[in-house]
Amino acid sequence: MASEKEVKLLDFGVSPFGVRTRIALAEKEVEYEYKEEKNLNLGEKSELLLKSNPVHKKIPVLIHHGKPICESLIIVQYIDEVFPSKTPILPSDPYARALARFWADFVDKKISQYALRVWKLKKGEELEETKKELVENLRTLEAELGEKKYFGGEDFGLVDIAFVPFTSWFYSFKAFGLLSVEDEFPKLAAWGKRCMERKSVAKSLSEPKKLYEFLSARRKRGRKGEKARERSEIVVASSILLDHRPEFRRTTRERAERAMAEEKEVKLLDYWVSPFGVRTRIALAEKGVEYEYKEENLSEKSELLLKSNPVHKKIPVLLHHGKPICESLIIVQYIDEAFPSKTPILPSDPYGRALARFWADFIDKKFYPSMNRIGKLKKGEEFEETKQEIVESLRTLEVELGEKKYFGGEDFGLVDIALVPFTSWFYSFKVFAELSVEQECPKLAAWEKRCLERESVAKSLPDPKKVFDLVSSRRKTRGFE
């Protein structure tokens, strides 16, 4: 096991993402050196931070034996893996781990996004819409908690660590006249109090009244220069908003198990052109897993899809022994853990796994949103700006690839699986956006060709010209061509 003394944390006091890291370190009883980024609120970042996280330039950053680990949920999983002697943060069962990752991801996409925005807004339509989304998402989270002590049952774990830092913000929500979590969500409020009984939480959370003073000062300064005062962690929203329904009061596991019969060991609910579905198909092929493929009509979603993924109502969904796993990167990691006998998708080294998760996350947060947006834009200034964002993201990925065969070196793995489905869209970029990946990023183009030599990739990727026909049809429908 790695020495516990060689640990540093670059952080900013009130950051809920930094608090996650502090709680995880406290749970594992890891001693570390804390380095406060004191002037982060003024847009000033230390040389060490910029060197340690040159991609996002954000806190928190955990430095272990001189190696940086970035993005809070990735850091927490790294801490769990590299310091395994203490109480585990993630459960040992692959399905339970997948559920924990799903709900932690939900907190990032659907809670933190609105919690970090709602206090900045002036009264008006946008504030009311943001408040409504936050309330609905908290309701969904409370339904998942149910009567359990913690989100994982009796065990304090990843989802609790992901969400509990935001309980410090509840006082501010009430003081700003936004909502009273205690009145509207008594189970979440009670859960927060239980969490505060843990030493790891009590000593890590920001004091609510001090946080309120900090937020009040920022509200008074207004939004002038907000871009320069970049918040500690950016969470890109999913392109599809949640459509929660009050009747979903049972846990995800209970809803799914009651809804589905176990006809086949493995089923995949998917849509042929979805790059996220392609990820799942490649992973299953790499592992040699036979499965039943069920094509979805996304304009008229099946009852099975709605029952299997009642939160997001999206594909892909993997059903294994009747149990649903959602969100493509979570599915790929589940496949790796549930079918360990074949070539691993993630490396065995915890730091290697953290790096793989970081770059896969980068693809979802930085590359995909721009790629998804450009097809919906008319040519003009915003179109060109989005095109440049795509190029910059691809160049960043190309730098990471370097001279390696695959992103993980000689081994095809998670980052390759995360990115390669989008190569089917490169032809469309070239035709309608005049963006040639081969010219802009020749190393990525060569990597694409190497990936296509793998049977798992070649048989899973859709035909680029069929993708272009679909993109072209949609642009014509929008009156762009």
Automatic annotation (TrEMBL):
Signal peptide: none annotated. One of its GO terms (molecular function) is glutathione transferase activity. Residues 5-87, 264-343 form the GST N-terminal domain. Its EC number is 2.5.1.18. Keywords: Transferase. InterPro entries: Glutathione-S-Trfase_C-like, Glutathione-S-Trfase_C_sf, Glutathione_S-Trfase, Glutathione_S-Trfase_N, GST_C, GST_C_Tau, Omega/Tau-like, Thioredoxin-like_sf. Pfam families: GST_C, GST_N. It catalyses: RX + glutathione = an S-substituted glutathione + a halide anion + H(+). Residues 93-212, 349-480 form the GST C-terminal domain. PANTHER family: GLUTATHIONE S-TRANSFERASE U19, GLUTATHIONE S-TRANSFERASE, GST, SUPERFAMILY, GST DOMAIN CONTAINING. Conjugation of reduced glutathione to a wide number of exogenous and endogenous hydrophobic electrophiles. This is Probable glutathione S-transferase GSTU1. It comes from Dendrobium thyrsiflorum (Pinecone-like raceme dendrobium).
